[in-house]
Amino acid sequence: MEPVEIDAGEYRLRQFHAADRPALIEAFADDDHQRYVLNYCLIDFSDADAYIARRAGEWTRGERCSWAVAVASDDRLQGEVALKDLDLRAGTAEAALWVHPAERRRGVAVIALTAALRFGTDTLGLHEITYLYHEGNVASATVAQRCGFQFVNSVMSSDRRKLLRCLRVTE
Known about the structure:
Blueprint: E1 6-8, E2 11-14, H1 21-29, H2 31-36, H3 45-60, E3 65-71, E4 77-87, E5 92-99, H4 108-122, E6 128-134, H5 138-146, E7 150-156, E8 162-169
Parallel strand pairs: 5-6
Antiparallel strand pairs: 1-2, 2-3, 3-4, 4-5, 6-8, 7-8
Helix pairs in contact: 1-3
């Protein structure tokens, strides 16, 4: 699958590139980020390059549509939004996102996720998208609610913490 850019008004959803490396390293060094975004450790440019390459490969293999969220006017990285665990035959995926610590609480997550969800339903034909977040993550709970997700149940994460599972269904 070829990557697609999305115009989300004041933000642009695009592929990651080398200029994003410093912001990626900053974001992944943040304590809150490390608490909620597991399985990644970006310490230097080499790690950031591997992360960028991984995301590009996931697009190519049709496993994940992942976008760097950037300010449209200056291309400054704000975070990442994704539709992962894609199953185009079944019409399902899981939404995921993170926001750079310096850019939180500005509405970027809702704008970016709304744009990604629209792509998922309108372009990919997805009709069921899940969103998981750690219990107590108030920001993620707010994003889920504002993007039309409904609580379904709770599950345990790989690190034995409670995740709240939400679902957004379209016909």
